[in-house]
Specification:
This protein has about 190 residues and is α+β, with helices and mostly antiparallel strands. It has a single domain, classed as Jelly Rolls (Sandwich), CATH 2.60.120. Helices cover about 20% and strands about 40% of the residues. It is built from four helices and ten strands. The strands form two sheets. Strands 1, 2, 4, 7 and 10 form a five-stranded antiparallel β-sheet that branches. The protein has a five-stranded antiparallel β-sheet with strand order 3-9-5-6-8. The longest helix has 18 residues.
Length: about 190
């Protein structure tokens, strides 16, 4: 190959590689997955109390180290962090022998993001929802709100809170959230 052909081929290969890393917004993106701290939903008392789901469903803190994610990929600064996927699964911590914990105690859930920083001015915002949970499910996938930039929340410390309908589970139930985020680079 001549020098100009080699240069043209190299430029074409570089352009193809760059375009394959671009998202719909034309920026270079990557995704990563984080799990929340495990949370315990307290079981029903001997005398059931009718409470909104958020009153007995604990908030879940996510430890997202965006700088570590950027450094591990040797990239520049992030322009935005967006929710791609949110799921929740029952964990074994509170499962007793012959216990079959599942999400039957939930009817609907709305998931909100808020800052865990004291005195933050960031607003609590709905980022995902779940309705009509099929019986017997130990893992559920949420419908996520597209296009909401979570970066300010990640920068301050991100916490997920819940509102919804349902009833307390029969016994204590442990669970965690799994979050897939997309990072858009400058």
């Amino acid at each position: 190959m001549t020098s100009s052909r080699t240069s043209s081929f190299s430029l074409a290969l570089l352009a193809a590689t760059a375009l394959s890393a671009c998202g719909d917004d034309g920026l270079v993106n990557f995704t990563f997955t984080e799990e929340s701290e495990e949370a315990i939903v307290e079981g029903r008392p001997a005398v059931p109390i009718d409470l909104p789901l958020g009153d007995f469903f604990p908030s879940m803190k996510l430890d997202v180290d965006l700088q570590e994610e950027l450094s591990s990929r040797d990239t520049g600064p992030a322009k935005g962090v967006f929710l791609n996927k949110l799921s929740m699964e029952i964990t074994d911590t509170k499962k007793a022998v012959n216990d079959e914990d599942d999400f039957d105690f939930i009817d609907t859930i709305d998931v909100f993001v808020e800052s865990s920083k004291s005195g933050s001015t960031l607003e609590r915002t709905k980022i995902a929802s779940l309705a009509n949970v099929p019986d017997g499910q130990t893992e559920v996938d949420f419908t996520v709100e597209d296009g909401f930039n979570l970066k300010p929340y990640v920068d301050e410390g991100i916490r997920l809170t819940i509102e919804g309908t349902g009833e307390q589970p029969e016994d204590d139930t442990s669970l965690k959230s799994i979050v897939e985020m997309r990072v858009s680079l400058l």
